[in-house]
Amino acid sequence: MLPPKIFVTGTSGYVGGDVLYELLSTHPEWEHSITCLVRNPAHEAQFKARYPNLRLFFATFDQPAVIEEEVAKHELVLHFAMSADNVPSATAIVNGLRKRGGGVYVHTSGTDILLDLGHELLYTPNRIHIFNDWEGISELTSLPDKAVHRNVDKIVLAAGSDTLKTAIVCPSTVFGAGRGPILRRTEQMYNLTRLILETGKGLQLGDGKSFWNCVHIHDLSRLYVRLIDEAIFGGSKASWNSEGYYLVEGGEYFWGDICRRITKEAYRLGLLASEEVMVLDMENRAVMAPAGRPVANYKVKAKALRARKLLGWTPSQLKLQDEIPEIVKEEARAYGLS
After folding, report:
1. Is there a contact between 166 and 158 (Cβ–Cβ < 8 Å)?
2. pLDDT band for position 337 (50/70/90)?
């Protein structure tokens, strides 16, 4: 069997770079048949040093026709770069695969799409709505148009056909050390840590019981590779198109607990004067904005059943709570405090 021709965007980024690592660790013989879209030519040397046989394709999302022509030469596309919100790139990928006569499109969205769905105040404790991708698959594929990422999700969902398989991978907070060639860290927890270090004391929003889901980057990458293998080797386990929506989570966390753990570790390292945690009321929630929109979420959570049931995927890496010491140390170094 000839190696598959795969087109990948966003491999200089955190998730895309780690998936590329996992994919080539699993199938090193595929390196010469993978094309990576590179939007910043300055990254060429780093890619070549790490993956000398990888084919690099230089273009930007302001050139959708160019991307479309290149996509048409490949049987499978993995989209990571600005994937959740960039309409021209998703459209170019769909058009390119249609021009080819079909193929497989694995798209990356995000669970922020579940926020603000009919809730006036996410931060008012109330009944929790659990989205799941098994019995609740139709709910996920028919979310209101006002939902963030929904405009691009609709493009991907509408493209699915007998000849064009689509899958949407929808991860929650991603954490852990990445293994890609360029960017190896995520923003959310590092931004929260920096905010606490800059403030000089711990921060907590309200009662600290707002929550969200999370998944380790290595576990997430293993799921992508399982989907890719299903597509390339003609497996029958994965579901596609209208049933190809995969939430990804390895558990959940409470924001207050994470904030206290960051504060305690920063104090232990001598980065804060005390373990004091300042409680912010909800009217001042904008202070916590660097941590992301879910910081005030009391209403919704995700349950990833599809990957577990169909692909046998189970998260096996460290929990977010166990990663806090390394996150604090790394952010302190970046901030010039150690």
Report:
1. no
2. confident
